[in-house]
Protein 1
Amino acid sequence: MARMSAQPNDPAHGTDDPAVVDAIAAWMPSTRWYPLKGQQVDVALERSFDLGDAAILLLRAGDALLQVPVAWRDEPGAAPIARLGDRWLVDACHDADAVQALLDAASGKRSVAGLEGDALGEPAPVGDIRVVAGEQSNTSIIGGDPEAPGGRWIAKVFRVVSPGDNPDVVVTGALTRAGCARVPALRAALSASWPAGDATVTGHLMAVSAFVPGASDGWELFRRHALAALRGDPGATPDATALGAAVATVHRDLAEALGTAEATEADTLRFITGLEQRLAWAREQASDALGELDAELSLAAERLRAIGSLGQLQQIHGDLHLGQVLRGDDGAWMLLDFEGEPLRPMHERMVREPRVRDVVGMLRSFDYAAGWALLQEPGGDPAIAGDWIVRRQREFLDGYADAMGAAPDRDPVFDALLLDKALYEVVYELRNRPDWLPIPLEAVRALVTAQPQQEPSGAPADRTPVE
Ligand SMILES: Nc1ncnc2c1ncn2[C@@H]1O[C@H](COP(=O)(O)OP(=O)(O)O)[C@@H](O)[C@H]1O
Ligand SMILES: O=P(O)(O)O[C@H]1O[C@H](CO)[C@@H](O[C@H]2O[C@H](CO)[C@@H](O)[C@H](O)[C@H]2O)[C@H](O)[C@H]1O
């Protein structure tokens, strides 16, 4: 439908045009970040923020509130959404001028009704931009200038927006202020207010952080190594021991910056109830895949009641896996993305938790790397993959224990969180990458049928590593 009463250069009017929302609703399911794939939902404009010839739209889609920055252009550019009348509606994340407008709002240089910027340091002007490709629930844009003050930066546009603080901003901000060297420094953040019933609520829209130059992604490094090991030519092993030490350092800095608390009985009960609910949620969401493990999962649910005390609680990363760590060109590991699990409600993401939740996240990730390698090389020897997992997990745990001064306990909390993560992953893969479902599903099977005293991946603890 053509824009009827809207002026071609009147974007504020354009956001009210039903054709704009219709075009975005038709386009969103083709994006990687769209969280409602396969679901039929109504899409409606909740609020828009005017950035001149660009705008940030908050769209209600089912239960989710989605952020879609758009711009109106004469040419389709790198990321067209639709041609509307005589102009193109484009994805603003791929448009340098529109990204500059977002950055100016975040660094407080541009005042926009309903938006608020918070600058810890001034990011350099946009320059050439590049949008990070790949498996992302958000959209990250790299810009800036390595030679300019404010350097190169990466701006993460949160796609699912919620009222309240986004931990990626608050936690990274606290670590930045504490001088933690194992996370990229936060430079600026953008938040918005929008109506919710009779109230007005506020939530974060974007975080801008220092870009880590020449970095290698931990997931790429380890999965390639696992595949090479399966093919008999592993080469140099990425340093999982140093990675364990980096995670311990961030845990220590988080404890200092944001405090710790000894878990009360009420905390433990809430924790157990939360795990029970997640287990029930996963069984319901993935009933076909998990049905054959019904009896074992019921026993696992009963075992949750054996959790005595949680020990010390603190802010943690919350969704730690190999895709959240980078190895810089100096060889040092950095941790990213303190947003927590995207399938978890925002209000659950800034509660203090046992540190071991992050530890098991990484252990699961080594299992994923070898699981992915076996999917690529179906004829590969599962014993080599199993051995690779055990070695990396041990190296990681040793590095963590050395830096922390204590090893994480292999106790009911550890076991429960390992299963919780694998169940979450089953639901995540069903929704996003069904071909990868066997990886977490096999892990759930191994965990619920495991005997006590086995290694986290389900491999026997006394296995002799293959040389
Ligand atoms: N500060 C940074 N420096 C360099 N690359 C980064 C930085 N932050 C993120 N990246 C790259 O962007 C990818 C996605 O970032 P991430 O924060 O994990 O987003 P998401 O929450 O959408 O998964 C990372 O895997 C990494 O490759
Ligand atoms: O990075 P996100 O915050 O978007 O996290 C979600 O997506 C991850 C996949 O990109 C998913 O992680 C799972 O797959 C990884 C390999 O791609 C693997 O290393 C992780 O161990 C595994 O959990 C994550 O669970 C999800 O929340």
Protein 2
Amino acid sequence: MDHFEYRNGQLFAEDVAVADIAHAHGTPCYIYSRATLERHWHAFNDAFGTQPHLVCYAVKANSNIAILNLFARLGSGFDIVSGGELERVLRAGGDPDKVVFSGVGKKAVEIRHALEVGIRCFNVESEAELDRINAVAGEMGKVAPVSLRVNPDVDAQTHPYISTGLKENKFGIEIGRAEAVYLKAAAMPNLKVVGIDCHIGSQLLTLTPFMDALQRVLALAERLAEQGVQVHHLDIGGGLGVRYKHDQLAPSPADYMANLFTDERLRQYEIFVEPGRAIAANAGILVTEVEFLKMAEYKNFAVVDAAMNDLIRPALYSAWQEIIPVVPRSEGKTETYDVVGPVCETGDFLGKERDLNIQPGDLLAVRSSGAYGFTMASNYNTRPRALEVMVDGSAMHVIRQRETFEDLVRGEAILP
Ligand SMILES: Cc1ncc(COP(=O)(O)O)c(C=O)c1O
Ligand SMILES: N[C@@H](CCCC[NH3+])C(=O)O
């Protein structure tokens, strides 16, 4: 988190005062640190040492083209889940040969485009999808590289909405059936089996579930090899958690890899990893202005100009993110507030019961907002989505303009 810190009594993003950005461009605005994004990417990449590997940044965490471009320049791969995300990667200068395509509902048109540009691998999530990819590749006279996303039935010990590796979750092919499906895939004329993929959930703060899943994947790879299906890579997914609270402990990418590589069998494969949150979350903040303070008998509310349409994690997962003043006051009184937005929903809050010394017009920063912040934003209540800024040393760049009212109604038509 170190590129967002207090200096001379106010919050800085690298060498730029956050208040200066807010005053220049308005609020709500997302601010990202280039140095932090790159440092986090390198932490994953370096954790592999000399092991053949590919860091496939999970585009869904933060898909701004400027951010994807930074990773593309570093030689990153990308994990995508839609044709739209593929388009972003290509526009950002990403190498299609380093793209893996996950997701349970790939449409034929998306598969076709991915085959046209030549992605590295489809992470196939069902037998029906396998048939569809085989058919589309056949029509195009191509051979599609595939891995099966297996569901290892491991409890990721995270929020139920972001757990993906249990048999009741919609993701992947149950590991008990995987062998049969692999044999079927290997016999299909327009497919080439290249790997095994597994992603068990997001915001994992302990390493045991990753290791449990890996053991099952390695055993599957061995059983497949015995039957003549040799995979080249293992994709271990994303999911490494981050620190949202000061007292939270999150394993580093180096700890994570060191733990996995205690199993030497891993070394014979190229290893893909798909981190999103661990790279982007703590590289961004959401800055908002206090509009009104509403002091009531039962509760105090700080009504701010960012809302659940800008950052939905608190409403959706009861997620806790730190909220801090951009320019802390030296005088005045600290009160306990629910920090709420202007959207007409009771669930529209950014934080509950926060002790803050604030006045209307003050700026607040919601930390750890670089991942699943802007990408999950909506136009609910016909609110424009926030502006995005990238700080790079002492420079700031607007990397996405705030939406205008014109943007908000684009494409709509009234009856003749
Ligand atoms: C298939 C897949 N890969 C990677 C990710 C990225 O996860 P995270 O942001 O937790 O690293 C996700 C999201 O959970 C995912 O569904
Ligand atoms: N969007 C979630 C994570 C889901 C990861 C995508 N599979 C979050 O904000 O925590």
Protein 3
Amino acid sequence: MAEPSLALRGVERRYRTEAGELPVLRGADLDLRAGEIVALVAPSGTGKSTLLHVAGLLEKPDAGQVLVEGRDSGRLGDDDRTALRRGTIGFVYQFHHLLPEFTAEENVVLPQLAASRGRREAEARARELLSAFGLDHRRDHRPGRLSGGEQQRVAIARALANGPKVLLADEPTGNLDVGTADLVFTELLEAVRGRGLAALIATHNPELAARMDRTVTLRDGYVVGG
Ligand SMILES: Nc1ncnc2c1ncn2[C@@H]1O[C@H](COP(=O)(O)OP(=O)(O)OP(=O)(O)O)[C@@H](O)[C@H]1O
């Protein structure tokens, strides 16, 4: 069978707090395969964001491995790990995290420039993506002038800008009203399925989880159901 797009092997992550050490992940294992959309559903505070940040190479695990298409990210230096993240992983946050002083288009262009794509090509790709999310008329607007749903659509377009293999999302529609959440979530699923990506999407909403291929949860620092 082909290599998983993303694999966690025995991942541990603990935080130092005033009350002592807090072990959040104690040995998390997970395989995400191309074309597979997995829901991450677990109670608040059990480590969903931590798992996503470690899986997305935004935080390093204290032990264990994060393998991206078979490459052990722990063996890479900072620059190579950043390049691997930029080229293979798209991340969508609950709150859009767009850069407020840049237009919608620039927000989708910038990560491409960071990944060494030329400006002209990056702009063409940003326009294509924004158009696919129905945002042609919002291209030149800054995030503050966009609705919550539009902001999240731009954030999704940005996550897809470098043609990732894996999409990770932390409550991507958790900040939207029910109707908008449903629409944006549908567009997100279509974008992920249409591109054959592997995806891990944290949600508190069982109806959204039911629309994904399978569900995993976190219990005592382990992934259950993965
Ligand atoms: N940087 C940090 N330093 C110290 N403790 C942290 C840090 N980040 C997270 N934690 C703690 O780790 C635990 C897991 O947090 P995390 O945000 O991963 O949970 P979560 O399942 O995503 O929660 P929620 O559903 O509320 O977003 C919590 O107890 C949190 O307070």
Protein 4
Amino acid sequence: VHRDLPLFLSLMNDQHRSLTRSLISHSVSVSEILAVRELDVDGGTKDDGRWQKMPQKLTEAYPYAFTVSYVERARQHRWQCSDVTFHCSEGALRQQWIQTIREQLTALSMADRPKHLLVYINPHGGKQQGECIYEQKVAPLFACASISTDVIVTEHANHARDHLKTEAELKKYDGVVCVGGDGMFSEIVHGLVSRTQRENGVDQNSPEEKLVPCSLRIGIIPAGSTDCICYATVGINDPVTSALHVIVGDSQPMDVCSVHHNNTFLRYSSSLLGYGFYGDVLADSERKRWMGPARYNFSGFKTFLTHHHYEGAVSFLPATDILGTPRDKTRCRAGCFICQHDGPNLCFCSIPEYEMGWGVVRGKFLAINAASMSCACPRSPKGLSPAAHLADGTTDLILVRKCSRFNFLRHLLRHTSKDDQFDMTFVEVHRVRRFRFTPRHWQNDSELDLRENGKQLFSQICRDHPACSCSPAYSSWNCDGEILPHAAIEVGVHCQLIKLFTRGIEEQPLFEDLANPPCAL
Ligand SMILES: Nc1ncnc2c1ncn2[C@@H]1O[C@H](COP(=O)(O)OP(=O)(O)OP(=O)(O)O)[C@@H](O)[C@H]1O
């Protein structure tokens, strides 16, 4: 029995045509088998409905059965758990099959399948279904695959982050799973990365410091309102699909950006950093939480109408020694060649700054965005930067200069069409390793504090009135959905700092129907 051999096909063809289901031209790699278990035919324990359709004569001739649970691919990157039951005439033969498959699965467990997981559930994420999703859809799969879990239902925001940072006995686990949305994922990243740095004596406050990669993988069971990270790394936000990726022990490295202000660590970002338009949308929507999810559309429309621009200088370190560019037509997919080639070549801080060719762009910007992944989501299937890579050690810096409302609308609409959103005179995009933003008229923090109170009132009035032509001096940074308190920031990409229990988005077979042929009897 070989790992990738069409194991059951040969069993069926050679000896046991009494299968409940024909698998003509269908093979399952052992790496996608979840579990194998005996079926007690005599006692009538039939957890497979198809078993009952077996003619009596056949069950008598082949009374020994076993069931194999495996991953079956459905449409649009969805995975589901399927069972197939095999029948033998001899008990010894059945035992041989079960033992052989179990040996294969044990070998996989030794290599990369998790055996013990720490699970955090946010009961308040998305539609507040986190606990129910875990109990009904995920826990039974983990149990079937003999994965043991310690489950913590969070009691407040940052519970998971703080527990991971200090208390959690991480040595006991093979991975950390969060049940929630992007905010919950961000908590796990902050907890794990901070803990890893502390244990390795790395000072997070130094922007120049090379961070130590986390050894534990992170699984995301989507139960939030947007689930962008899940969508961009799996291709779908489906709890069962994500649980199956955890069980088979997938591993996808991912870059993480560190954000600093004045040599002080602010936050980590793994998807989008946005100043101007996306910062203003988030800041406005936070003030309108009472509106529920409708606030995003409302704030988006309002921010579009206000059309504020912000002056400043963006300096950046272009990633020059790489194969990919932000204008590529190819996409980051499972087994991505660019991530494997460019990622390991990029070492944070490996080149002294004076030898590097930093570029500077000054001007008035409607938006400054840094996309560390495509940021694709159901609303924008190609995302902010469709060719961005998960693990190449770079972020795509998108600068949208001041332009007319009409042109900005054209740019925004292109995110939802096939047209290139970067092919516009007022838009430029650079693939970078690091960047800084300094707003014009930037004052240090103490000066800002003095002026803050007086200005606040007027900037609030301006923000709330789309017709006001007076642009406030500063926007806010939207850091993966959280507002940052400072406009002047310094960002560095840390190549492959974390690993997820995914494999990246799999290429869709050209003809989906042929990939999963209907079962013939
Ligand atoms: N028990 C809790 N009570 C209140 N807030 C919590 C709790 N546990 C976690 N949180 C916070 O809730 C915030 C939102 O959670 P989460 O990301 O799971 O859902 P969401 O915001 O609906 O989804 P998305 O981030 O995908 O839009 C997170 O920032 C997290 O810090």
